[in-house]
Write a structure and sequence with these properties.
This protein is α+β, with helices and mostly antiparallel strands and 192 residues long. 45% of the residues lie in helices and 17% in strands. It has eight helices and eight strands, in the order H-E-E-E-E-E-E-H-E-E-H-H-H-H-H-H. It has helices at residues 2-15, 93-96, 107-110, 112-118, 122-131, 137-144, 149-179, 181-189; strands spanning 35-40, 46-48, 52-53, 63-65, 73-79, 85-91, 101-102, 105-106. Helix 5 runs antiparallel to helix 6 and helix 5 packs across helix 7.
Length: 192
């Protein structure tokens, strides 16, 4: 039952663009009805709830929201009114960067029409895709002479991105986050 609950929770959260990152349990047992506080060393992080009372009913979860983290960070769980953490784990960049899939559909596929219409920095994106090996020099040369941004994007989707699969789309998404950060953030808010 608990595993089913976690799977359903993961599906629901992924439909909103969130993803659970599972970490090992504390080495010592935590007692029911004790209250705990989760903290992080990353500025600007939001943790909800501020304090959580451990109960036997539904599983207990903290939600950690960090807008565009760009480095690893540490989480610490501390019992209320105590200084020594009962659990400390590092979240590495590669653990949270692959949050671009939503119910099996990649972010760049789900938002294809918006990206074709709204991407404005296509030449820089193509430069980066060439450097990362997602597109070949031949594809780069072909797309560079296409007159409109929208047609370049369509050509990118029809050829190199289709051939590159999820890994290539992950690289494309990472470049979009860097070069078109406001567009990506807007699309995430509107329902990734």
């Amino acid at each position: 039952m608990f595993v089913f609950f976690l799977q359903e929770l993961d599906k629901r959260n992924e439909s909103y663009g969130y993803r659970a990152i599972r970490k090992s349990h504390p080495e010592t047992s935590l007692k029911l009805n004790d209250s705990f506080i989760l903290t992080t060393d990353l500025d600007g992080a939001e943790i909800d709830p501020e304090m959580l009372k451990l109960r036997n009913e539904n599983p207990n979860f903290f939600e950690v929201f960090i807008d565009n983290p760009d480095k690893k960070f540490k989480l610490q769980l501390t019992k209320e009114n105590e200084r020594q953490p009962v659990w400390t784990r590092t979240i590495r960049k590669n653990e949270y960067q692959s949050t671009v899939h939503s119910q099996g559909e990649h972010f760049v596929d789900k938002h294809r029409c918006d990206l074709i219409e709204r991407v404005s920095n296509i030449n820089t994106i193509l430069d980066n895709l060439l450097t990362e090996g997602v597109i070949s020099q031949e594809d780069y040369d072909t797309m560079s002479v296409i007159p409109t941004t929208q047609e370049k994007m369509r050509k990118l989707y029809r050829g190199p991105l289709k051939a590159a699969g999820h890994d290539g789309k992950d690289v494309f998404f990472k470049i979009l986050e860097e070069k078109e950060s406001y567009l990506v953030a807007d699309l995430k808010r509107k329902g990734s």
